[in-house]
Amino acid sequence: MAARFLAAFLIVAGLTAPAAAHPHVWVTAKAQILFGPDGKIVGFRHVWTFDEMYSAFATQGLGKDGKPPTKEELAPLAKTNVESLAEFQYFTVAKTGPHYYEFGAPKDYELTADDKKIVTLSFTLPLKEAVSATKPFTFMVYDPTYFVDFELQKGEAVALKDAPPGCSVNTLRPDPLGQEDTKKLNESFFTGLPIGSDFGVKMATRSIVACP
């Protein structure tokens, strides 16, 4: 499925995705966890910066006189991106204990390119229902198949916005892979075969929100 996700990007960019069983996209991510006036979590603000290869695909033929494309030029691709993300649950997990929460349609989305034509997708992802964080609330961004490699940016990658006093977020990065998982990852890289439908969670960073 992730291959179709990438293919949708490339088609909008006017390209054909190369034939490969297990290509990869690398994303550097940061996020805000958004609170409403009642002190409950209402959604997330995602900011995803793509790798050089995908950025080159996305911006090819766009921009003038060597300059990066404008937001207006990238707007059709931004629309396709966020629409395609629904199939993959926006690569976002939000849960309290064993209970998982559903999302509404993304809004306030845009795709921008910096001076080096590296593209960044930003969008707000609302929860269908506001969630209290008086019990530990877990937030993760990852692709279960590890087709798309999400890595949180260094520093304060996950922040709270408009949170009540006393709320905190603790971000836990994954442990290094064991020998067996490292072997699977290497085999997938060299053979081009999918690594599995649940490998990505082993590479996922968990952010846990707690409020008094």
The residue ranges in which pLDDT falls below 50 over 5 or more consecutive positions are 1-5, 7-23
The total count of strands amounts to 11
Number of domains: 1
Mean pLDDT: 81
Task: Please give the radius of gyration in angstroms.
Answer: 18 Å
Element order, helices and strands?
HEEHHEEEEEEEEHE
SS class: alpha+beta
Characterize the main sheet: 6 strands, mixed
Total helices: the number is 4
Q: Cα distance, first to last residue?
A: 40 Å
Please give the share of residues in helix.
10-25%
- Bin the strand percentage: 25-35%
Can you tell me the overall shape?
A: globular
Q: How would you describe this protein?
A:
The chain is α+β, with helices and mostly antiparallel strands and 212 residues long. It has one domain. The protein contains four helices and eleven strands. The strands form two sheets. Strands 1, 2, 5, 6, 8 and 9 form a six-stranded mixed β-sheet that branches. A hairpin with a 2-residue loop joins strand 3 (92-96) and strand 4. The longest helix is centred in the middle third of the chain and has 15 residues, at 71-85. It is globular, with a radius of gyration of 18 Å. It starts with a helix and ends with a strand. The model is unreliable at 1-5 and 7-23 (pLDDT under 50).
